[in-house]
Specification:
This protein has 13 helices and two strands, in the order H-H-H-H-H-H-H-H-H-H-E-E-H-H-H. By secondary structure, the protein is mainly α.
Length: 361
């Protein structure tokens, strides 16, 4: 009993030996939280009540999940009310406030070594270098695009922070689709062709000013090219025809502009009247023709000639409009009952109204 100093009455009474009346809060170690529920022998091993250590680490070393990395002053982070609940205010006591997902991770996720010995850097890249899917191409200022709430979601405002506003399909593009090199060493050009050269099906024959015809909403969408400024204005039914109906290849520039190159299959004359379709027809309708034989040639159509079809006279290919009137015999040799005895100037005796109408005096 010597080690208790013969003062049993300090804790026990005569009424009940097992009843403890010792007031621990009057000592230099008041019992708080979970300590109030702890048995005396849990701290006073071997019934040793003198010089019992009062620091946390002396008793709780086996419970130290940090394995000594965070020092021995447990009370900086923990309290006797709940050992697993951390009371350390990282926002107030450090220069690195915990925001977003940083507030939900364990201490050792960042503090892999003793914070007393190793001072962590506060830059994003110092911890997240392995998470940098850009492989350093976009620099080390991660906070320019990302925040602690979501690493995968970026909030960089390309319209305000650069001279190239993202419109249409450009908004859906990934950063790496355009920025393939180092962001700080490689300055991207802003013209369409520098990025879309591989998409140029015209093979530069239409130049490099893609925006003259295309826009950011759809590369293959409605083309706004003004065809009327070319040497082949679109008039009549041509204005309704899709580009690919005439431009059979994507180069466009090599497309021929003569009618026959496109409409040879529609030529009901089988080229008997030549290939200058525009001499008779207009773009308003293939069936509409306006050739004036009396004005556009030297052979006046009158009399019985008026009801004839073009092919009645033009039986062979017309290579050019004849400006010298043809002799009657050129067409009517087989109709000459005189067998050529009166010559080939039939018009001296006959008129175009009828072969039987004779005017010779």
């Amino acid at each position: 009993m010597g080690k208790y100093y013969n003062k049993c009455h300090s804790c026990h009474t005569e009424d009940n030996w097992l009843q403890n009346k010792f007031k621990h809060n009057k000592t230099r170690f008041p019992l708080r939280g979970k300590h109030q529920e702890t048995e005396c022998v849990s701290c006073h091993a071997g019934d040793q009540y003198i010089k019992t250590p009062r620091d946390c680490y002396s008793c709780h070393k086996p419970n130290d999940v940090h394995q000594g990395r965070n020092g021995k002053q447990c009370q900086k982070c923990h309290s006797p009310y709940k050992w697993k609940k951390v009371s350390f205010d990282h926002d107030k006591k450090t220069k690195f406030p915990l925001r977003g997902k940083h507030d939900r991770i364990s201490c050792q996720a960042c503090h892999k070594q003793s914070p007393q010995k190793v001072k962590l850097k506060t830059s994003c890249i110092s911890c997240h270098a392995n998470d940098d899917r850009h492989k350093g191409r976009y620099g080390i200022k991660c906070q320019s695009c990302h925040n602690s709430t979501s690493w995968s979601k970026h909030f960089f405002n390309h319209d305000k922070k650069t001279k190239f506003k993202l419109r249409g399909k450009h908004r859906e593009a990934q950063c790496a689709d355009c920025h393939k090199g180092n962001l700080y060493k490689t300055k991207l050009k802003q013209d369409c062709y520098s990025c879309h050269q591989i998409d140029d099906k015209h093979k530069q024959q239409q130049g490099k000013q893609c925006q003259r015809c295309h826009n950011e909403n759809s590369w293959r969408g409605k083309v706004r090219f003004d065809h009327d400024v070319t040497h082949f204005p679109l008039i009549g039914l041509h204005a309704l025809v899709p580009c690919e109906e005439c431009h059979l290849t994507s180069t466009y520039k090599n497309t021929k502009s003569d009618c026959n190159s496109c409409h040879s299959a529609d030529d009901t004359h089988n080229q008997q009247l030549g290939t200058q379709c525009e001499d008779c027809h207009t773009p308003n309708g293939w069936g509409i023709w306006e050739f004036d034989h009396n004005k556009q040639s030297e052979f006046k159509i009158n009399g019985a000639h008026k009801g004839l079809h073009c092919h009645s006279c033009h039986r062979s290919e017309v290579k050019r409009i004849a400006h010298n009137p043809r002799a009657c015999s050129a067409c009517h040799r087989n109709d000459d009952p005189h067998n050529g005895q009166f010559g080939s100037d039939c018009e001296r005796c006959h008129t175009t109204k009828s072969f039987h109408d004779i005017k010779f005096r």
